[in-house]
Amino acid sequence: MIKYILNTENYTKENLVKLLQANLQERELIFEKSSSIKEEHIANKVYLRALIEFSNHCEKDCLYCGIRKSNSSPKRYTIPQEEIYKTIDIAIAKGYSSIVIQAGECKEPEFIEAIDNALIYAKDQSGGKLGITLSLGEQEKSTYKRWFDLGGHRYLLRIESSNKQLFETIHPRNENHSFETRLQKLKELKEIGYQVGTGVMIGLPNQTLEDLAGDLLFMKEFDIDMCGMGPYIVSPDTPLAKLAHKIPSEESRVDLSLKMIALLRLLMKDINIASTTALQTLTDRAREEGIKVGANIIMPNLTAVDFKDSYKLYNKKTDLKSHDDTLSAIEEQMTRVGHKVEIGNWGDSIHFQRKTTN
Ligand code: SAH
Fold this sequence. Notes:
- It is a single chain.
- Helices cover 45% and strands 13% of the residues.
- The chain has helices spanning 2-8, 13-20, 24-42, 81-94, 109-125, 141-149, 164-169, 179-192, 209-222, 250-267, 277-282, 286-292, 305-308, 327-336, 350-357; strands at residues 45-48, 50-55, 98-103, 131-135, 154-156, 195-198, 201-202, 226-231, 272-275, 297-298, 340-342.
- The strands form 2 sheets. Strands 2, 3, 4, 5, 6, 7, 8 and 9 form an 8-stranded parallel sheet that branches. A 3-stranded parallel sheet has the order 10-1-11.
- Helix 9 (209-222) links the parallel strand 7 and strand 8.
- Helix 3 packs parallel to helix 10 (250-267) and helix 6 (141-149) packs parallel to helix 8.
- S-adenosyl-L-homocysteine is lined by residues 64-65, 102, 104-105, 135, 137, 157-158, 160, 201, 232-233, 235, 278, 313-314.
């Protein structure tokens, strides 16, 4: 059956569910196909995005997230301007060709201006060479436009779950956490001209395989350029932690996440897909597995230790040792799985490039 679906490439929701159910032997067939599709369409190259966790202040109260507004445990910080500039200098000096600026959601003018300044600095310091992805939540369209004009060219905003009912069980039910707004914001980012990335959490309480299959079809339908998705990891002191008994085992969440990456690669042959930190957090080497089965992006964390410890979206059981996240360590890990880390090249989504040049 698995073989038949893969051969006919008939990826209906029903068939995607069957593929998600594949056992350990069967899943190898999926992985073989997804890795060869990747090799054929985008080659076995991995691009890096140095992650800067700019601030953990957040106006949102997402029920799963460790930096949600109502959580009093994290010490709140925003990296001061000079420190951000220093981090950008380090990214450039280390040879990274792209950075990701991520933070909790904040719409204060000071915050927006701080991002403006970081963009201006990054572009100036690198002579326009540093690629910049933003991951700063829902903002006014004018803000998205302003950052785009200052040089941000990729934006990550996860839909979290494309099933509105499930979305509503993992967010407070109020205006500030609306499924429709999230969709609208994704559309705005596209209209402005960003390469748009989205993604979902995998293994949420009450999430079904039909939901995950629906997520894959949603990404295809929305015609995304990039994807970052990974396992849901319980964050203590959050409301969703009370449902921890309802989630699949760690092993199953890793299995499902790898299958989701592989299946998305089958559906969207030339987009950028990240092998996420959350995956690595659950199982050592899972990040390499993610690359093997279809992902092509890794986001090493460049946030200074003093801040990094307070940016806890979830419980980092086996936090990545910083020495595992150096350029040379990643190069070594990638060589082990037959991939080459590309330096000095943005590695923009080929899917996006094809769309815009056609
Ligand atoms: N505020 C920004 C970016 C920070 S959160 C935004 O909302 O886009 C980045 C992502 O971390 C979220 O989109 C969510 O999918 C993920 N995340 C948050 N809590 C998590 C958890 N407990 N387990 C796994 N992923 C989580």
